[in-house]
Amino acid sequence: MKNLTIIILAAGKGTRMNSSVPKVFQPLGGIPLIEHALNSAKTLNPKEIFLILNKNISKEDFNNEKLVYCFYQKRQLGTADAVKTCLARLKNNKNKVLVMYADHPFIESKTLKKVVNLKSSKSIKLLSFKKEEHNSYGKVILGTDSFVKEIIEQRELNSKDRYILCNSGIFCAHAKIFSQLLPKIKNNNKKKEFYLTDIFKIASQNNFHTEIVLGEESEIMGINDKKELAKAEKILQENLRNKFLKKGVSMKDPDTVYLSADTKIGKDVTIYPHVFIGGNVTIASGATIYSFSHLENCKIGNKSSIGPYARLRPGANVSDGAKVGNFVEVKNSTIGKNSKVNHLTYIGDAEIGKNVNIGAGTITCNYDGKKKHKTIIEDEVFIGSNSSIIAPVKIGKKSYIGSGSAISKDVKPKSLAVERSVQMEIKNWSKKVKK
User: How do strand 323-331 and strand 311-312 relate by DSSP bridges?
Assistant: First the structure.
């Protein structure tokens, strides 16, 4: 929608989080809260996105975001004051303007499309929902014509008042309505703040079409503290598991599998209990992930096998048919097609070819105390158990490394390299020791 501007309010301090990390950067499913909101906004293909931030958030954090412009609310004077920070950009703007919140991670694209579907240039449409139980949401008051008469914050209501139509805070109107009505909002309330919700009362009094569209409370859940964040995480994990189960992923015990919001998994993948999948992980079709494996920022190829008790750190790339077994750690390395790293091994800053066998207890020694160095192991190499590969080093194609070797020099193709002390045997040594 090239005629759409989206405003995301993210200037709240989030003090209830009791954290040095700003609320909008609190992780949910491995990505910041605000990234969920941005992802939802982008599904509408807007012309531009305005982020309203507080002084503790740097605009540099959003340098890689296309179409995103940052504005700062200098003082916490309410949501209407926050939107005023970009009011100059809305003047002479013919776009529709959608207001969203950074702490609403579950809002769906189909719901937002209903909100931005305005009947006329005089329409202002609010996303609302019904909730019978007592709650802290602002309440939507309808007039006899079923248009929104006003929105009253829960704290401003009389204790005897009971309304079930709740305010989500998400609404849409044409830019000229914001330019016309925002300056009219006053701070005549208990907190002496400028409430953006007052725009509906002013709009109603000026004969604008103040409509509502009903949504589900589950989409509009806001997050203000760690308890609500934990609740949201539980909901998100359930949603992610169900999504992948529908796509043909098998999970032996879904409740024990942790997924990230950006996880990509192909069909016919099998995941065993107690697996952690962090951010930026791609698992190709037919792979098997065994219990107690920890994956982050890595790629796993078709029909490969990971774990149990494997750790794939950032930059790990496991090719098709490869195996990374129990108590193996891989970082910033490629494991070639059909290669095996079966047990008790560390692979760091390495490039391993296809059909390679890495014996138990092998270590790539990649760090000299100052710099990281690369190990290259070419196709069809066999490395015996308990070997140390001291980088920088290259092991040629089809070569063999004898068990227990410490390899610090390049090995030519088809060679056998052995580096270890000669075994000595002292006869009757134990008798001498006892004396």
Answer: parallel
